Amino acid sequence: MSESNLIGFRVSRAGPLALLQDAGRFGVRHLGVTQGGPADLHAWAWANRLTGNAWGAAALEITFGGLELVAEQDLTIALTGANLGTRHNQKTAPMWRTLAISAGDTLTFGTPVNGLRAYLSVAGGFCGDTVLGSAACVVREQLGGFDGQGTTLQEGDTLAVNRTATTPASQVAPDSEQRDYRQAPILELLPGAQIATFTGKSLFEAFNAEWQVDQRADRMGVRLTGPRLQCSIGSLVSEGISLGAVQVPPDGQPIALLNDRQTIGGYPRLGNLTPLAASRLAQCLPGQTVRLRAAGIDSALRQHRQFLAAFR
């Protein structure tokens, strides 16, 4: 550990999936390496903003809960994203705001109450081994994370944080930014190159029917169940796959691809979720209902640029 770093937390109980995520790993897809990064870009960005970190600082993504951390130092933190029944020293931990904790304090993440993935940031940012320009943890590729090997947190692990010379001022995210993930979202989708190969009935159903989030959902992608979409082509020559791409395999049930997706794919695509729509989908529990709404490239770009401008 560098002299400029210190031990921030010790893992007293490991949950099913807690991963270190910075902004992601870019410029390496030609090597077959995916981007990683936060599944919910919105919540991750707010966690870092509340603790005064620059864009790209590494935060902890906690899926499903079950994690318990003990602070080894006095720290300034923020919790955003899903409400996982988090408790600070056995009291309900405040979310979407800056929080000062002391050495010896405990943070306990229970089970999902509202959403699926919580984000924990610390002033100065967590430390991780940079691999191909990023500390983003991708378990399948064994890259990034606290050890550079893409491993999930284990009991007894210690989490290093960067020293920070100043304590960020107390902040609270605006109410409009504190998401209620229990609400059925409408996900904006940019129609894709193969959209004309789907039948008219399928296109009507795609954007008017309700879709259910399937049990088969992880950081690679989320399967949606509903009407069977029919396409005149069964497969394509494999081509690059972007974040939020919605592929339709032969069974007609769409799959929205997320951060840990493969880099190429050969199924026809209905289109592409916007980054914020993909983030919102990543917070949906199995069984939740979602709808798709067609969006234009100009409005989608404008929305995303406005989002980024607020954090950079």
TrEMBL record:
Signal peptide positions on this chain: none
Annotated Carboxyltransferase domain residues: 30-311
Keyword Nucleotide-binding: yes
Sequence intervals crossing the membrane: none
Pfam families: CT_A_B (PF02626)
Gene3D superfamilies, per database record: Cyclophilin-like
UniProt KW keywords: ATP-binding, Hydrolase, Nucleotide-binding
InterPro entries: CT_A_B, Cyclophilin-like_dom_sf, PxpC
PANTHER family in alphabetical order: 5-OXOPROLINASE SUBUNIT C (PTHR43309), CARBOXYLTRANSFERASE DOMAIN-CONTAINING PROTEIN (PTHR43309:SF4)
Protein name: Biotin-dependent carboxyltransferase family protein
Gene source species: Marinobacter azerbaijanicus
